[in-house]
Fold this protein.
Amino acid sequence: RRSSDLIFDLTDGTITFNYQDVADLTDMEANYQTAPVPASVGMENLNGNIGIQIATALPADNSCVQFYLPTVPLIEVLDVRPDWNNNTANGGFFVLKNTFGDLITGVKNSGSLAVTDDVEVEATVFYAAGGIFDSYETSITGGLAVGEVKEANLGVFPAVQEGTYILSSQTNLAGDINPSNDDTDTEMVVVDSTATGEMTLSYVVEDGGVPAISVSWTGADLFDDGSGIFIDLPFAFEVLAAEYFVVNPAGETTITTGFRSQILNNDGQNGSVGTVLGSKDVAVEEITPNGWHRVDFDEPILVEDGSFYTSWMMGGTGISLAASDVAPYSRRTYEILGNAWSSYREAASRDLYIRVIGRKVSTNG
């Protein structure tokens, strides 16, 4: 098909195929033209033994096909999976050095059949650079109703060494129809304060040379478009500065516009970001191309619950932000278009070169 898109709607579970400009059979390759069923519309599982076929003819231009959940399940599907690790967003998280916290996996029954047996849960903590830090195992007892999520406490993680780790959890249940979703990985970063009390928060693993990947948006103007990350700390935090690895736009030899740095509270409604707590503009003449640029805010920004966003907003199209495709990935990245935030389209396979510098603070008395 041509000029089409696919929409997954989490609110009602529907899947919609939209077709705008559909190719004629004569435009297809010869092997398609001579096939018994040259074109079909439908979907099937990984094994190809369960599926729904809608049509064996090409859909019309400007049409759509929607799949929806039946009121009563038509087949019995046994499918249990680890839904998240340590936070329901399954996003990267930070741990303070020399603390000891529990590792938690949310195990979900994603099938249409109630689970009555115990579910084995295993997990391994890897160093991002390679090698195993520790292994864990436990089980979910008492079964799982359809759609139910139960928390499995894997055990204590001793954060004795700074660095980036991968928490990889796995479920084991006899008869599970979809083993491809039986494991999930989550980024875990252990941080510590320097002698001055400052700490640096970043999801990017490597930090050397000029990254080959960058992010920018066509038509960016007047700080309406950019990128951002979300940080959720288990303690109050005072933001002092933000750092961004700014690079030349693709095909350009210089940076021709500045950017805006912002810290935003996590107090938005309906999943949106919150109010701006601090903002500072950086003029193009202040920027060193192809390197980290630190933005010190005029006043420290206190985030009492430790949960906040930071954004990098383009002054125009003449600047880009570096990105990394080295695992693990935080899934805490956002793209901002017209001041509207949405999950970064490459969130599952990239992180942004953004760092936040600040210090842990006490809010007692």
About this structure: The chain is about 0% helix and 50% strand. The longest strand covers residues 291-303. The chain has a mean pLDDT of 90. Residues 234 and 306 are 6 Å apart (CA to CA).
